[in-house]
Amino acid sequence: MGEDDWRARCVDAYPAVYRAVIAMGASANEAADAVQDAYEKALLQGRSLERPEGWLFVVALRRFRADRWRHRIFRPLSSLRVAVPDNARPERVDLLAAIAMLPQRQREVLIARYVIGLSQVETAQLLRIATGTVAATTSHATKSLRDRLGEGYGR
């Protein structure tokens, strides 16, 4: 299959892939974004596949699921932005800013443990790290947050 044929088959597959992502629970906008991302990846990969509609569906579905998880994680955190009014305390605590300053692994572990509510074992499996690493990372991250936010915070 030549590159032009591959592109034509991708274009022909768009309606079916779009409908399939909607059938998986995406809104029209979510499905459009996911399918567009899949098409971009298809064009960048530069190789033909036997069934472009299947490949596009899997890639679009992964994008949709990742966006859904991201939304689930950050929606509860958005309420924290307004939880402490500016005039409530002179040293306004911005928990999200403090979390953003943590290394990526520490952020991932904290979010998985305390926002999503996963156990240590579930977090370890999800992030593909050892259970002991989850415990140590959680300890280091909470200590860093306590240091940044003040010793009395959260106790």
Protein architecture, described:
The chain has helices at residues 3-23, 28-45, 52-78, 95-100, 104-116, 120-127, 131-149. The chain is mainly α and 155 residues long.
Q: Any low-confidence stretches, pLDDT <50, length ≥5?
A: none
Q: Main β-sheet: number of strands, strand sense, barrel status?
A: none
Overall mean confidence score, pLDDT: 79
Number of strands: 0
* Number of alpha- plus pi-helical segments: 7
Q: Report the helical percentage.
A: over 70%
Q: Which band does the percent of strand residues land in? A: under 5%
Radius of gyration: 21 Å
User: Would you list the SSEs in sequence order as H and E?
Assistant: HHHHHHH
Total of domains: 2
Classify the secondary structure makeup into a structural class. mainly alpha
- Which outline best applies? elongated
- Please report the distance between the alpha carbons of the first and last residues: 64 Å
Write the SSE topology.
Layout: H1 3-23, H2 28-45, H3 52-78, H4 95-100, H5 104-116, H6 120-127, H7 131-149
Please give a quick description of this structure.
This protein is mainly α. The protein is built from 7 helices and no strands.
Annotation keywords:
single chain; 155 residues; 2 domains; elongated
